[in-house]
Amino acid sequence: MTARSGSQGARGxxxxxxxxxxxxxxxxxxxxxxxxxxxxxxxxxxxxxxVVDAMTDETSGWSTELVxxxxxxxxxxxxxxxxxxxxxxxxxxxxxHTLAPALELLGADVTRADWVYDRLRFQQLMHPTSGGLAHLxxxxxxxxxxxxxxxxxxxxDAVRSExxxxxxxxxxTEVGRVLDRQAVVVVDTRHAGRRAIDAARRGSPGRVxxxxxxxxxxxxxxxxxxxxVAVPDRDSWDQLVPAERLAGAxxxxxxxSGLKRVLSTTLRTLGGAGLLAPDxxxxxxxxxxxxxxxxxxxxxxxxxxxxxxxxxxxxxxVAGSRFVKIPLSVDQHEALAQEVAxxxxxxxxxxxxxxxxxxxxxxxxxxxxxxxxxxxxxxxxLDRAEHLLVDILxxxxxxxxxxxxxxxLWTRLRSPRALRDCDEIGASxxxxxxxxxxxxxxxxxxxxxxxxxxxxxxxxxxGQPLLVDWNRFEPYNPLFLDPAYAAVQxxxxxxxxxxEALLAxxxxxxxxxxxxxxxxxxxxxxxxxxxxVVLLDRVVSYSLPRRRYKPWTLPPLRDAVAxxxxxxxxxxxxxxx
Length: 577
Description:
The chain has 577 residues and is α+β, with helices and mostly antiparallel strands. It is built from 22 helices and 19 strands. It is globular and about 70 Å long.
């Protein structure tokens, strides 16, 4: 891709900085809504380690909400809404921080460009790609030759905000110039919340600001092909629904049981709509480029033009004739394969009646996707979910006894990785006490789900309840881990912290069938020893380094370790022994 000499901006140079960004502009707008301390950190840092150090420093001024929004991998989930990007792609000023690496994983040669230098620098430090990087002046022509890109992705509302309507028209004209003949353009737009919600309920979500967007796209010589609306709001990455089906999605609500369903129901009960200010992702194709090609999501769904809802968690999923999870990063690519293997392994245990059948891996372009059967779930409240989880656990074989040191948990706890994880969370002393004193304690052992809570419970309209997300399944572990952790999650759903829930179990202040089941399975451990092991299991259980990929989970864990340590010091009779 050739930089045009007349488009290098006031700086007049295309020298790259230390992270590889070509500085083509002296114009340097502020990264809006991001605190000054964060921008200063990004300016100084030359590696991801330095940024993470600041993120995880409790005095640095990085809020949990900000860290999560900047790092969560699902912010790039909309990458599955375009055809497999096998050519050259330009991500221009998008706040979807993980979008570029997701497009790269799906096959694109990605160039990142932005008029906000700090945002571009952060993205390359924390979510790197191997393609070009350019800091641009939006008021100048784009610095690429005509017909350079097969895909351009931009936040059109951010462009409007920066340049006004006439400036946005000029930028879209430039986008049209750099597009190849069969190219795709994707724009992100935002709405005033009430207008969008009311339009969705009338069945006309595409009309909200649709005409202005279509006129703008026309300057890039592209025509709107599909519109997807974020549900329930732009920060949750919970669902991207085709606009023509948004009214039905609102009427049907969330098909899952568990905590997220309860939250959505509560919002509606309080007079809310269940969604706030949805964003739109508008996909457009060149008007002279022939028939639009199928998107990654449509290909993954298994049939042309199949009804597709693009969902997201840590990995994007699409629902068509089957439920399909699509990886967004190399790490997720490996994790999905492990999840499918674990689901298959769980079916060879006494969990079999509660595990989905027919789960498999399949190739879609350059990635392997995980395919699951679609389950239409019914709504259950938390009390009902707790009893169903106990029923599932009661069906497991708990007759085998073994010392803790023989379990998978113990192997993880003794690893160098666990030593680092515990050190950064303040749990080194707790880990040492458990390793020193509890290895020979005998407990019931067997297969564990590893992440048991109501959101991983599906209750079909007919048949037995099912458990999903087996990525932490282990065939030989202390059996108390599942009911104890599920009890903790239920307690947290009522507003308590992780530490408070653990201490409530340790002190006998929390009861219920899951706590009772955990007590039955703790063997020779007392309640405090059991919750100490449960906490350490959470500290070392993630497949990815929490500090690097999920630092927003550190504060509640750190607080829980401090609470456990303080409580232990106050009650010497409850120390591990």
